[in-house]
Amino acid sequence: MFKRKCLIQSAAALPPQEEIFFQMRKIVKQYQLGDEAVTVLRDVDLTIQEGEYLSVLGPSGSGKSTLMNIIGCLDLPTSGEYILHGNIVGELDEKELSRIRSREVGFIFQNSQLLKRMDAMKNVELPLIYAGVRPKERARRAEEMLVKVGLQDRLHHQPNQLSGGQQQRVAIARALVTNPSLLLADEPTGALDQTTGRQIMELFHELNEDGNTIIMITHDVNIARNARRVVNIIDGVLTEAEGEVTFA
Ligand SMILES: Nc1ncnc2c1ncn2[C@@H]1O[C@H](COP(=O)(O)OP(=O)(O)OP(=O)(O)O)[C@@H](O)[C@H]1O
Ligand SMILES: [Mg+2]
After folding, report:
1. How far, in Å, CA of 119 to CA of 141, rounded?
2. Cut 0.85: pTM above it
3. Residue with CA at minimum distance from ligand 1 atom 16
4. Ligand 1 centre from 142 Cα, in Å?
5. pLDDT grade, residue 43 (50/70/90)?
6. Using CA atoms, how far apart are residues 108 and 216, in angstroms rounded to an integer?
7. Cα(169)–Cα(60) distance, rounded to whole angstroms?
């Protein structure tokens, strides 16, 4: 009895084990085209701390979307190790992968991909329906997010009654509503004019100040510069950008 108590006490005295937030090690992605294996990601190493704002900058065809799909657990690497929020992604089954996709990652795409027949509120509520949240709570959280992105006056507008920038804000609110550990954006300003794009970048900055971790994927050096940290990807090779960010 006494011995057991001692054990419990000594365990309690140990510091809690640090959970790895985001770590990729030697990620390789190959596609099989007939007899030929095409390598698209080559030994990608990437570690991100919670609360970081990172952009992945690279030209067309460099592997950005392929990397995003792996980060968002939409696809698995051919080899290498990926840990997201303490989960070793390669060891998860389909059910756990789907839980990670819907709970841990908020996706934002170039085209907002909203449902046309639903108003802003219903579009933002959608991930909460999948998560089994009750209607009243869903509405409360959806409204809170739409207010956060500055759309308090557009709650019941359908996508075709909103500007491109407003549609993208709805998509951002939808990505945020499940309180994901990671916001993952693929060319989030790609379909917007410069001024609207700048406003979306201001919103990303605010979201990061509020503690959200953001990974933004872009081919545009001026967009990439908005992030606090930039990595370059060229022909599937990822390197840390140093000093002034330029398009290598
Ligand atoms: N399913 C696939 N099968 C074979 N090759 C693929 C597949 N998907 C992507 N690729 C190849 O992988 C490379 C990287 O594609 P990816 O879509 O990741 O590029 P990207 O950097 O996102 O480009 P963009 O800026 O044009 O969106 C390309 O050469 C592409 O042809
Ligand atoms: Mg792409």
Report:
1. 15
2. yes
3. 63
4. 34
5. very high
6. 9
7. 25
